[in-house]
Amino acid sequence: MAAAAAAAAVGGPQPPQPELPAPGLALDKAATAAHLKAALSRPDNRAGAEELQALLERVLSAERPLTAAADGEEAAVAGGGGGPGAAEEEALEWCKCLLAGGGGYDEFCAAVRAYDPAALCGLVWTANFVAYRCRTCGISPCMSLCAECFHQGDHTGHDFNMFRSQAGGACDCGDSNVMRESGFCKRHQIKSSSNIPCVPKDLLMMSEFVLPRFIFCLIQYLREGYNEPAADVPSEKDLNKVLQLLEPQISFLEDLTKMGGAMRSVLTQVLTNQQNYKDLTSGLGENACAKKSHEKYLIALKSSGLTYPEDKLVYGIQEPSAGTSTLAAQGFAGATGTLGQLDSSDEEDQDGSQGLGKRKRVKLSSSTKDQSIMDVLKHKSFLEELLFWTIKYEFPQKMVTFLLNMLPDQEYKVAFTKTFVQHYAFIMKTLKKSHESDTMSNRIVHISVQLFSNEELARQVTEECQLLDIMVTVLLYMMESCLIKSELQDEENSLHVVVNCGEALLKNNTYWPLVSDFINILSHQSVAKRFLEDHGLLVTWMNFVSFFQGMNLNKRELNEHVEFESQTYYAAFAAELEACAQPMWGLLSHCKVRETQEYTRNVVRYCLEALQDWFDAINFVDEPAPNQVTFHLPLHRYYAMFLSKAVKCQELDLDSVLPDQEMLMKLMIHPLQIQASLAEIHSNMWVRNGLQIKGQAMTYVQSHFCNSMIDPDIYLLQVCASRLDPDYFISSVFERFKVVDLLTMASQHQNTVLDAEHERSMLEGALTFLVILLSLRLHLGMSDDEILRAEMVAQLCMNDRTHSSLLDLIPENPNPKSGIIPGSYSFESVLSAVADFKAPVFEPGGSMQQGMYTPKAEVWDQEFDPVMVILRTVYRRDVQSAMDRYTAFLKQSGKFPGNPWPPYKKRTPLHPSYKGLMRLLHCKTLHIVLFTLLYKILMDHQNLSEHVLCMVLYLIELGLENSAEEESDEEASVCGPERCHDSWFPGSNLVSNMRHFINYVRVRVPETAPEVKRDSLASTSSDSLSSLQNSGTAQVFSLVAERRKKFQEIINRSSSEANQVVRPKTSSKWSAPGSAPQLTTAILEIKESILSLLIKLHHKLSGKQNSYYPPWLDDIEILIQPEIPKYNHGDGITAIERILLKAALQSRMNKRIIEEICRKVTPPVPPKKITAAEKKTLDKEERRQKARERQQKLLAEFASRQKSFMETAMDVDSPENDIPMEITTAEPQVSEAVYDCVICGQSGPSSEDRPTGLVVLLQASSVLGQCRDNIEPKKLPITEEEQIYPWDTCAAVHDVRLSLLQRYFKDSSCLLAVSIGWEGGVYVQTCGHTLHIDCHKSYMESLRNDQVLQGFSVDKGEFTCPLCRQFANSVLPCYPGSNVESNLWQRPSNKSIQDLIKEVEELQGRPGAFPSETNLSKEMESVMKDIKNTTQKKYRDYSKTPGSPDNDFLFMYSVARTNLELELIHRGGNLCSGGASTAGKRSCLNQLFHVLALHMRLYSIDSEYNPWRKLTQLVEEVNSQQGNEEQQPEVPILYHDVTSLLLIQILMMPQPLRKDHFTCIVKVLFTLLYTQALVALSVKCNEEDRSAWKHTGALKKNTCDAEKSYEVLLSFVISELSKGKLYHEEGTQECAMVSPIAWSPESMEKYLQDFCLPFLRITSLLQHHLFGEDLPSCQEEEEFSILSSCLGLLPTFYQTEHPFISASCLDWPVPAFDIISQWCFEINSFTERHAEQGKALLIQESRWKLPHLLQLPENYNTIFQYYHRKTCSVCTKVPKDPAVCLVCGTFVCLKGLCCKQQSYCECVLHSQNCGAGTGIFLLINASVIIIIRGHRFCLWGSVYLDAHGEEDRDLRRGKPLYICKERYKVLEQQWISHTFDHINKRWGPHYNGL
């Protein structure tokens, strides 16, 4: 059935239907729906339609808004009686039922989806969504793809990146207008419309009826909810409330759009059908509710200033602000006859009252087709009104998404685009008023970019809806609201208006969306063509651009420093770049070929007109106002860039588009003013204006702006220079730079416009500018690739650069379609041609390097261009950096040893159109300046630097390179018309002028000048006067006068009346300096030419007389092949030689004259009359010489003093050094250890009352606990299946073991049987520096009072070592006494092992009294407290009875264990490498042991419980244990951890320990260890093996060596244990667990050795620290034997011929079999009851592998895709900042408040649980690693780098990232070695907020 018929049926307000009884509503919805659908399917469906109509009336609007009207708006919105929202839900339920026509809604959805002809993806996303952009596949630069489509397409090798959407967007996959089809993903490659069946008519029939009503209902809600904000305070709360209520409705619509194409086309029909709209919304008929709604709609329209003209006056009062009304009235000024006229005049008055003075009205050009662009809005369809409300409500996200979701429907797309354009002006007004303009801007662009990126669509709208007119008009109006009077030039009478950069509109970039759209549509050729052809538009656009001309004017502060530094310049630069430059680049990109000449002519023509208007408006004649500068001249730059394009690409004749001379003279003034101001700013002449003026100068040349700012300015100046008179131009330059007065031959001068301290840098500025002007070829003939190469070389010469910073620094054409896209083919190929890649290097502990590009040697050799570098440096230091690097290159390559001058670089040839530029080099004014400067430098006048000479020589060389005339001409051209007014030089060619001798010069000097007195003397002598007459008159020269003369001529030529206006004004200005009375005239005798000056300068620079000898006299060849490499690089001397050679080459006369000058050997005696200047230089020399001598004397004296001091110091030291040596030879004496205090600098031993301490850092560590037993490191999970379970970590295994022991045995005994500290153990490290503890306390006090923000917390005891600045938090006291336990203790005694055992027992039995209260003991106590507080309570308390002393005991010896184990890990897990401790003197284990031992001895173990007894004595059988059932037994000795026993035994001994006692303890413990190994082995193998060994061993039992044979011992162990139930309990399931390997003697021996090795390693380390013996290095396979002999376990006579057997190390203190059976008995009695556990406790895993961080995947994307959308397991949300722990793989929310527990955020909490305060997290969204250490954190850097070796922090560039294995290794190394605190510098407190 046709939609129209349906509309007719539904249409028209109808009386309530009697047929449908009210209770009908209560009937089953589905039944009703099915009934209606059936009724509608009949051919005659009028009744059905009416019935449905009535139902919808009731359900959807049901008079609800009326019933609530009395209770104000909120209730109306909330809906009728059923409580807020209930009715709406009901209505939605009805709609779903009706759509489905009685079926289930979900089935209906599925059915509709089946008919989806989706060729487009069209997925819409909002801000912060991660999408992709592929430049290889994109046609439009805005193309974007969702992650799914991207990964399903093939983009290998493409130039793509991932990005975070700022404003939202939509996926373009499948849209061939925006991207190439090759990039489509698999889903959208097929053009599927053909094979999708037709949609059955009845499926969507109900939708066609229901949806119009539904949408109308939504619109009614929107109308109801909107209240015009009162008094300009938008009621955002109200709007948001309405939107929240409408959430379900809009979501319902959004779901409909997702059903696919079939449903979308129904929606399109509904939204665009004008009949439906008219019928439902006209507000006629008797439905009061509809009427009211219509009225609200009209009010809303009117309040927006959008009305029909006839309504205008009535509602005029309602307009909220003058701004809007101005705009409104303007729009139809002249559109509606008298009414409009009257209005606009009204507005003009109103305008005046706003105090804008007489503002020039910008009249819209007549070509604007529709005068009411700004005002009239007539809605004809639902879509139009929906968009209207979307704008009114400031673009709610849901509505935007709904409107965009519809875009895949082509018909809708066109309709929506037209609607959008129709509302464009209204959007602008709303945006301007909005308080949330940022969010709103993003939403607008989100929509517009989808519409305008499509060329076809943009073209259509441009043709049918005047899109361009609308955009330009809207932009113009927008800017009109913030104009102010320009103060440039003539403040009072200026008629020019500019935008006010302080206004919010500019400051907040509110114009951004409109400009962005404009740039977007201009990128389409068809649209840009229309723009360039439409003269009216061009005029309007130039009007718009002129608003920015001269904005943000700076006035130089001359007296006070400015109080308030305005930051408006940001806004100004952004505005010029975005609103003027970018559209300009867009237009330029379409002017590439000859056929587009016409466009250029148009733009240039209107640009010049606008410029002429501007000059008139600011009342500009010929002099810029002093002390003001604006950096913003967009009109000049438009003109320049179109000129450049015309010559470069369109082959236009330059002169045909240039204006007359007068206009050119005006054009050059302001750009030149900017160049001079740059020099002034860098000379600190603007310092009173604050830092912001420097900021402007930098921004002007900065890489993103230079293309659109300084480059066009310099190009324009080059054009002017090539067409204007060269003398005029040169003199203008020096005048603008205020250095005219300096250019005199006299040694003194007065400068009326410049302070003396600024003269030098301004002169340098002027010369540098001339050099740049004459040698820059960016727009004068270089090709794009050459430009790119030059830019790249300049950047690389300043510094090595990363790839991304190069991309950023090289000014790309801002318009993306211009072809030079960063990363494009040409970029990469040029880069590889000029630079070498330096891969990132890693010094562990060094900073993280990035991959860098560095210039190739040949680039330094041939392409280094200082001019380009100077032009492109933002900071002056970069120029110096480039020169330093150049110097280094020359030294390294041996080309030049000294300090080189900037090299002279050959230029690319000039384009013929600009040949005139070179006339600057051949004009007399420049030659006079060069001559004068050379003379002044030679005479050492003040204010001249090497830089000046360098630039002067550069200019001379440029002139020689670019001389036009041939030599033959030269000779003749001496006499010519030129000669009349200027007798300095005969002609204007530099080549011939160089040899011209100038004899006398007349100068104006102050009367005080030395020249004056000398002259008065000279004039008495007749001969000097006569000679003066002979030589003709002396030269007089004033740049200013010269320039005036030229200017006068030009003016006279152009108009006769102008000069009456101009002359008096200018002459009065310039008479002042001349008429100052104190100046007088003097005549100087010069007698030099440029050539002779050069040769003398050569002598001066080289410091030798006659240093210059013409090279061609020796080697005539040199004149034939002039390119000689030896002249390419060098200093000033080289430069002069090069110039003289070129001069000789160009002219035979010059060659001859050079030779002559060199022949006149200058006599070394000074000239007869010493001029003042010369006298000055002589004085200077003398003074310098004297100073040098004085210095020499001083140095000598100082040296002798130092020497004597050193000698006396030595005397004090030497006796001490010698005497002990003598003594030691006589008798052994204990030398006390001497410590240096790094604070007070004194040395001495550590004593009881003034102890010295080591600077230490205590930190809790769980690194040990992370050891696993398998070699393969765990991988980071990147799918749901992969999970990491921690039960195989060392920490977990030890935990299980301890809790198992505690279940069955006595608590106190359990706590002696194991070590803790695998997790949260305390690691102590030191930097090796010592200090007095009292010094340390005062140091801490001073830190506490220091207010500087430190990276550490002094209150927590943290500080940095005063000497090496390493982070520390405690001081470990050094025990007074010997220097590494002295030899006395180390002599081996010959006591038997039995005696030693007795001694050990005795010593342990003595209770350790705590030493008396000395300072030392206090410190020992306090450091012990520190150690305890380092780790959390849960890592200290394992006892069942809290606070039991056993806990402390266990904790203390475990600290020792932790430190030993960690050192072992730092050595790589074994001791094969040997040598001293890894940290060398930095080990503090010795001191730590003293502190621990002191405290351990406070707890004496009851002698009957002391394990030492069980190890060394046979106990008589006592049955007491059996009797006492309820008391838990002691832990059997075989379950004890032997290493823990070792530490307990040693720490219980009084310190210092004797070596033989140590060895004794080790021997005894080794017997236990070996027995444990045998028991474990017996449990591991199966029954048959056991019986076999039992048998073989029993046979050998009676041999002499039985106690040292593992077979015998093993068989004994097996037989003993067989008495118990240990082996019986084996069920069948156990067999699987037992290893099925067959045990050979070799494998058994290896098993036993491996079992014992960890103990031997720890023991050896301990021995090394206690007794200072070095560890031997060895091979891995002999580690056991070497360590055991080093520990004294192996008898010395042991021979290593036959294979080594571990059992040979045994030394039983009591008969082996007796003690073993005693030990086994304990086990048997336990296994009686608990065989399972008994067995588990026997098998200990001893072979832990080194700890590792998780293994990361190669490509970062795999991590990112899995984690960035993963939900957090705690709060089940997707975290904003997800992070993952690299130690255990836990996924956490960084900074997430959702997972906060007791003020700790999740990362901090996890770092405490997982790493005892150290956490290593990878931030998913930033690719960086963050380290948490206690209360501080730091950003570590990234271990993922892109293809160019760079990090991509925050994934800003979005390039693919790959793991950098070296970096990850460095990270892991820092984690294992606990050096995060020392290596990373930038730490900050995290306040538990991470």
In total, the number of strands is 28
Biggest sheet layout: 6 strands, antiparallel
Weakly predicted, low-confidence segments: 1-27, 62-84, 308-371, 815-820, 966-982, 1013-1032, 1054-1077, 1163-1171, 1208-1230, 1379-1385, 1518-1525, 1627-1634
- Measured as a percent range, the helix fraction is 40-55%
What strand order characterises the main sheet? 22-21-23-24-25-28
**Percentage beta strand:** 5-15%
Class based on secondary structure composition and strand pairing: alpha+beta
Helical run tally: 77
Radius of gyration: 47 Å
Shape: flat
Q: Give the averaged pLDDT, no decimals.
A: 78
Spatial gap, N to C terminus: 63 Å
Layout of strands and helices, then pairs:
Blueprint: H1 3-10, H2 29-41, H3 46-61, H4 64-69, H5 72-78, H6 86-100, H7 105-113, E1 124-125, E2 130-134, E3 145-146, H8 147-152, E4 160-164, E5 169-170, H9 205-225, H10 236-257, H11 261-272, H12 274-281, H13 288-303, H14 309-312, H15 322-331, H16 337-353, H17 382-392, H18 397-405, H19 410-422, H20 424-433, H21 437-452, H22 455-465, H23 467-480, E6 483-485, E7 497-499, H24 504-507, H25 512-522, H26 525-533, H27 535-546, E8 554-555, H28 568-588, H29 597-617, E9 628-629, H30 634-649, H31 661-682, H32 691-701, H33 710-723, H34 726-736, H35 756-775, H36 784-798, H37 803-809, H38 825-834, E10 835-838, E11 852-855, H39 857-863, H40 866-872, H41 876-893, H42 924-938, H43 946-961, H44 967-972, H45 990-993, E12 998-1006, H46 1010-1020, H47 1022-1030, H48 1039-1054, H49 1058-1075, E13 1079-1088, H50 1090-1102, H51 1117-1120, H52 1132-1146, H53 1148-1159, H54 1172-1226, E14 1235-1236, E15 1243-1244, E16 1252-1261, H55 1290-1304, H56 1307-1313, E17 1321-1332, H57 1333-1345, E18 1359-1360, E19 1367-1368, E20 1370-1373, H58 1383-1386, H59 1393-1405, H60 1415-1430, ...
Antiparallel strand pairs: 1-5, 2-3, 2-4, 6-7, 8-9, 10-11, 12-13, 14-15, 16-17, 16-20, 18-19, 21-22, 21-23, 23-24, 24-25, 25-28, 26-27
